[in-house]
Amino acid sequence: xxxxxxxxxxxxxxxxxxxxxxxxxxxxxxxxxxxxxxxxxxxxxxxxxxxxxxxxxxxxxxxxxxxxxxxxxxxxxxxxxxxxxxxxxxxxxxxxxxxxxxxxxxxxxxxxxxxxxxxxxxxxxxxxxxxxxxxxxxxxxxxxxxxxxxxxxxxxxxxxxxxxxxxxxxxxxxxxxxxxxxxxxxxxxxxxxxxxxxxxxxxxxxxxxxxxxxxxxxxxxxxxxxxxxxxxxxxxxxxxxxxxxxxxxxxxxxxxxxxxxxxxxxxxxxxxxxxxxxxxxxxxxxxxxxxxxxxxxxxxxxxxxxxxxxxxxxxxxxxxxxxxxxxxxxxxxxxxxxxxxxxxxxxxxxxxxxxxxxxxxxxxxxxxxxxxxxxxxxxxxxxxxxxxxxxxxxxxxxxxxxxx
Length: 404
Fold this sequence. Notes:
By secondary structure, the chain is an alpha+beta fold. The protein has helices spanning 113-126, 205-215, 219-227, 252-264, 281-290, 338-342, 385-389; strands at residues 10-11, 20-28, 38-41, 47-49, 55-60, 63-70, 77-83, 88-94, 136-138, 144-149, 154-159, 163-167, 172-184, 187-198, 236-245, 297-303, 312-315, 318-321, 326-331, 355-361, 366-367, 380-384. This is Carboxypeptidase-like regulatory domain-containing protein.
């Protein structure tokens, strides 16, 4: 029988109001203590290594987190924890890797030109193209394995080992367990578990400056401001819009049929000729293909200055990000970086002087805790500036900007 994770919760009667202590023990399935296991809260700087008895102790503020436990030769485990003002004692059993079935088989990686090209795409998508992204270095790039599916135009990535990322711009050494990564038609999805550590005990002034700049206008900044009902004070403006199919763009079916007609045509085709009224099927196909580059959808703004009650709902006193259609989040206190204006294909956008991002709910609504942390970050999709910033501009969840 396959052995899994066992968690025993024991409650204590004394606690600190500002910080909660979480203690525990990590063992094998045979109840042997695992010394040197890594225990950390995902996307934070809070972590520990187990002692000779397999024991650990963590201190954290209340909120919702994912606890990650890993040890060489064992399968990494993770589980959500709602840290209220009650300390916890955990007993965690890890499953040996030789008991794990149906693991992904990674064939020998060939470090050829295709691999180098895919690595470049991976870094642009995962780390981003910001100024801070240029200060990030993946120290073990060759542990990345790529697969490109030509039929679906999808690039996927698998990491053979935990990625080690040195972030000289923010002053962090980050370990990242890549769970999923895919790009399909420039739509990016990735997920994983990250632990942040300061590169030095003493934080350099440039790191403090860069961290604050990364925080300002970020999704973290917005969600904290939203929960605290001070988005206006923090420099945010929220608008609401609908997204509808572009009536001027032909359907995908018409575009595909037109492409096939062009491919099957044996004669010479003048694609530059002026066509007012199509006289042949080829003329019609040319007109359709000329319109294929039009955007699939059009956005229609219908509400400005969206208020708190139109974005947040409550169930059993728990807040949820919940709204109709789409939200446009404008951060007024910073302008766009030059690389954002250039775009991926060198088509320069017009500078607006603000940073604009869109939020799309993928599951109807998304729970958010009282500290501004999304319970399920994958329940929303970002477009615009937040998508451009990517991983290199992300801060640990326990980051706090300096008080004025």
